[in-house]
Amino acid sequence: MNSAEASRQISQMVEFIKQEAKEKAEEIRVKTDQEYNINKLSLIEVAKQNIISEFEQMRKEKVTNQKVARSAAIQLARRDRLQHQENLVESIRKTALERLSKVPNESAYEKLTIALIVQGLIRLRDDRVKIRCRNEDAAIVTKCIARAKSQYNEIMARDVGIGYDVELAVDSANSLPSSCAGGIQLLAQNDKIMISNTINSRLALCFDDFKPVMREILFGN
After folding, report:
1. Structural domain boundaries of the chain?
2. Quick one: DSSP state of residue 106?
3. Is the pLDDT of residue 150 over 80?
4. 130 in helix, strand or coil?
5. In DSSP terms, which residues pair with 198 in a beta bridge?
6. CATH assignment of 105-213?
7. Burial class of 93 by CB neighbour count within 10 A (0 to 12, 13 to 18, 19+)
8. Roughly what angle, to the nearest 10 degrees, separates helices 109-124 and 138-159?
9. Coiled coil: which residue ranges (predicted)?
């Protein structure tokens, strides 16, 4: 082999090696680009999912906050409505009490007092009963005692078949306050048992019994 032929073969080998190196480098570059793109897409997808998750969490929190705010507003409106209703019912009670406080000045008060005493005696069925009233009503109550005892005996004789003799007296040592609208309290068994038949207590009882009906009339369902 002459020098020219040897030089040609060496050149061919060099070109072959260069081509192999070039192809290998291209293969490495392509593989690297593919891996880079895959990693890039993976990172983008992860970031995308994180953003979606964050926005979804924010959306859920917003919806929850809106529900909480709406519920709070509804509760506040309900409380305001109930308070308004309660204020209206209370104003009716006060108006009724103001009107009833004028009853002691009317002629029918004596008849009412007798009825209240008799009702209390029927509930107590005791032979010694004290009547507690306002100072300004003491004279009327004292005047009503005899008739109240008579009516009580008649009712018991008719309904039970036995007449009850009751010792009845006004408790002058302990009077109802002037702030009371009127009526009486009956006490027995050394003041251990008490029946309240004041106008205030009867009005309160009436309101408790009829408050649902009153609310239905005033406010509906």
Report:
1. 1-102, 105-213
2. S
3. yes
4. strand
5. 183
6. 3.30.2320.30
7. middle
8. 50
9. none
